[in-house]
TrEMBL record:
It is found in: Cell membrane. It comes from Staphylococcus intermedius NCTC 11048. Residues 287-299 have a biased composition (Acidic residues). The lineage of its organism: Bacteria, Bacillati, Bacillota, Bacilli, Bacillales. InterPro entries: EF_Hand_1_Ca_BS, GatZ_KbaZ_carbometab, PTS_IIC_man. One of its GO terms (biological process) is phosphoenolpyruvate-dependent sugar phosphotransferase system. The chain crosses the membrane at residues 31-51, 140-163, 183-204, 211-231, 243-264. This is PTS system, mannose/fructose/N -acetylgalactosamine-specific component IIC. PANTHER family: N-ACETYLGALACTOSAMINE PERMEASE II COMPONENT-RELATED, PHOSPHOTRANSFERASE SYSTEM SUGAR-SPECIFIC EIIC COMPONENT. Its main location: membrane. One of its GO terms (cellular component) is plasma membrane. Keywords: Cell membrane, Membrane, Phosphotransferase system, Sugar transport, Transmembrane, Transmembrane helix, Transport. The gene is agaC. Residues 274-299 are annotated as: Disordered. It is a multi-pass membrane protein.
Length: 299
């Protein structure tokens, strides 16, 4: 299957838009949305969700501080979904061989976009001195152009000229280097776990480890119980045609609700403990302030 011209156009336009959404509205500028939209354009939403969801989990603990550049997971997801569907790649293999490397390389175009925007920043400074408010607005909006092009151009070039290269790589990975291709597939499946590990490193896990253990046990128990009921219902339905009751698995929303309840309880408890009585001479207030300090496992 080839990537059609209209698919290249739509994917390029989305690649340019997603970075603007990421720095402005932050609604559709996430890998999971990039996977869904790319999957819709390519005609395989399942593959888009697998790659987009995997990439979203991989960067869970990755953030930008002080304007620092980070890997462009969205562009990596767009290209991985496009080539995975077009060439029939295993989604996990596409995640490891395309999504992550491309996302890392796009750091350079991110830096280039930031560098180019200084041109418009200096023009805005001159417009401020001239009290040219319309000029200030125009140059502010012009700054969106380098951001969009920094993603749209590399994605466009990769989609148009990179198909043959990716096709050869896939053939090698599934042929002479099958052992490497299988290893990269396994690595792609493990990447979300790496994202969770990075996230846990920055969470105050040492302070709240009882909730972490409790949440893990509740999730494991609920999944086991609901899976058992579902299997039992399927077996009974096979023996008795009059048995029409269906058993559904535990939705992730229910697990999230349990976590939210525990988080609300902990927040309520810590908020009350930090309220210092007025007749204690400020001693409790000092202790409460100390409790709120960031510890080493929260950095």
């Amino acid at each position: 299957m080839d990537i059609l011209w209209w698919q290249v156009l739509l994917l390029t336009l989305y690649a340019g838009y997603q970075i603007l959404d990421d720095i402005q509205f932050n609604i559709f500028g996430h890998p999971v949305f990039a996977g869904i939209i790319s999957g819709l354009i390519m005609g395989d939403v399942t593959t888009g969700l697998i790659i987009g969801g995997g990439m979203q989990l991989t960067i869970l603990g990755v953030g930008t501080f002080g304007g620092a550049s980070r890997i462009d997971a969205n562009s990596g997801t767009v290209l991985a979904v496009a080539f995975s569907v077009a060439l029939g790649m295993n989604p996990q293999q596409a995640l490891a061989t395309l999504a992550v490397p491309v996302a890392s390389l796009m750091i350079q175009t991110d830096i280039l976009a930031r560098f180019t925007n200084t041109f418009f920043a200096h023009r805005i400074d001159r417009k401020i001195e001239q009290m040219d408010y319309k000029g200030i607005e125009r140059n502010y909006l012009y700054g969106a152009i380098p951001w969009a092009l920094s993603r749209a151009i590399p994605v466009f070039l990769a989609l148009v000229f990179g198909g043959s290269v990716v096709s050869k790589i896939v053939d090698y990975l599934n042929g002479d280097l099958k052992w490497l291709g299988d290893g990269l597939t396994v690595a792609g499946a493990v990447l979300p776990a790496v994202g969770f590990a990075i996230l846990l490193r920055y969470l105050p896990l040492k302070k709240h480890y009882p909730y972490f253990i409790l949440g893990f046990i509740i999730t494991a128990l609920m999944v086991t119980v609901f899976n058992g009921l579902s299997g039992l219902g399927t077996s009974v339905a096979g023996l008795d045609k009059n048995f029409t009751m269906s058993f559904s698995s535990l939705p992730m929303l229910a697990i999230a609700a349990i976590g939210f309840a525990l988080a609300a309880m902990e927040y309520s408890r810590t908020s009350q403990s930090k309220v210092a009585p007025a007749n204690n001479g400020g001693r409790q207030a000092t202790d409460a302030d100390d409790e709120g300090e960031i510890e080493d496992d929260e950095l």
